[in-house]
Amino acid sequence: MSGRWCNYSLAMPIDPDGWRRQGQEQDLPPGTVFLRRDYRALDEHSEHDHCQMCWAKLLDPQFSAAHAHFIGEHPEVLTVGLATKVEERRLERWVCEPCFEDFATEFVWVLSAT
């Protein structure tokens, strides 16, 4: 993996009423398994995604030259994240590294090596 995790510092306290909390426990219940992966577009209509917690954007730099250029000009755009381990890629949920680190213990998320 040679992509970007996060090129900016997120000093976000874990506030029980914080803005990142939007009821994600419904889609990311305790025991949800995540894989660290490069983000890749699903198809021509679904070429980006967002962190389920903070809405940081994930883009596929291989999708097009324009996407690669945009990523180069916007250091806040991520190309690597943590995706839920699911049977069908369309059902994946993505979380950025800082949010995973902030919420993994509380939400009992699991990072898988495979």
Q: Can you list the strand order of the major beta sheet?
A: 5-4-1-6
Give helix and strand order, one letter per element, not per position: EEEHEEHE
Helical element count?
A: 2
For the record, the count of structural domains works out to: 1
Shape: globular
Strand count = 6
Find the structural class using helix and strand composition. alpha+beta
Low-confidence stretches: 4-11
The radius of gyration is 14 Å
**Mean pLDDT over the full residue set:** 87
Multimeric status of the protein: single chain
Range of strand content: 15-25%
Major beta sheet, specifics?
A: 4 strands, mixed
Residues in helix, %: 10-25%
N/C terminus separation: 14 Å
Describe, in plain words, how this protein is organized in 3D.
There is one protein chain. The model is unreliable at 4-11 (pLDDT under 50). The protein has a 4-stranded mixed sheet with strand order 5-4-1-6. A two-stranded antiparallel ribbon has the order 2-3. Helix content is 18%, strand content 19%. The chain has helices at residues 65-73, 97-107, and strands at 33-38, 48-50, 57-59, 80-84, 94-95, 110-112. The chain has one domain. It has 114 residues and is of the alpha+beta class.
Characteristics:
6 strands, two-stranded antiparallel sheet, alpha+beta, 18% helix, 114 residues
Q: What would you say about this model in short?
A:
Helix content is 18%, strand content 19%.
Write the layout of secondary structure elements.
Blueprint lengths: L32 E6 L9 E3 L6 E3 L5 H9 L6 E5 L9 E2 L1 H11 L2 E3 L2
Parallel strand pairs: 1-6
Antiparallel strand pairs: 1-4, 2-3, 4-5
